[in-house]
Amino acid sequence: MRVLDTTMIASGRFRDRGGFTLLEVLTALVVAGVATTLFIQLYVASVDLAKNNRAERVALQLAREFVNEIVAVPQRVDWSKIEGPTEGLVDLGLMHFAEMPSTKPLERRAGEHTKDFYEGFTVEASGRIPDENAQFVELVVRVGWQGKRKMDYVALTSALPRSAAKGVGRP
Question: What is the model's pTM?
Answer without folding.
Answer: 0.70
